[in-house]
Amino acid sequence: LEESKETIARNKLLREKSNELTQLTNQLKDANEELIEKDRQKDEFLDTVAHELKTPITGIRAATELLLDDDDDMPQEIKAQFLKNM
Q: Is 75 left (phi over 0), alpha (psi -120 to 50) or beta?
C-alpha cells in the first residue's frame, strides 16, 4: 500500500512536470514564431531602405557620368544646374 502511494505521488509529480514542459514548449514555439515574423519585417524594411537609397544615387551617378563626359557639348549653365541639383 505504501509503495502504491509513492508510485501515485511520483506519477502525479511526473504529470505536473510534463504539463510544465508542454507549457514551456508552447511558449518557446510562440516566441520562435514571433522572432521569425520580426526577422521577416526587418528584411522587408532593409529592402525598402536599400531601394529608397538606390533611387537618388542612380540619378546622381547618371548626372556625374554626363558631367565627366569629355565629348559632350553640354552648356556650362546646364552643367552648373546638374552640380547644384546633386
A: beta
pTM listed for this prediction: 0.59
* Whole-angstrom Cα Rg for the chain: 33
Which cell is 17 given?
A: 512536470
pLDDT tens, residue by residue, 26-59: 999 999 999 999 999 999 999 999 999 998 899 8
Q: Look-up: residue for cell 556625374?
A: 64
Beta-carbon contacts of residue 22 (< 8 Å; ≥ 6 apart):
none
Alpha helices in the chain (DSSP H): 2-68, 76-85
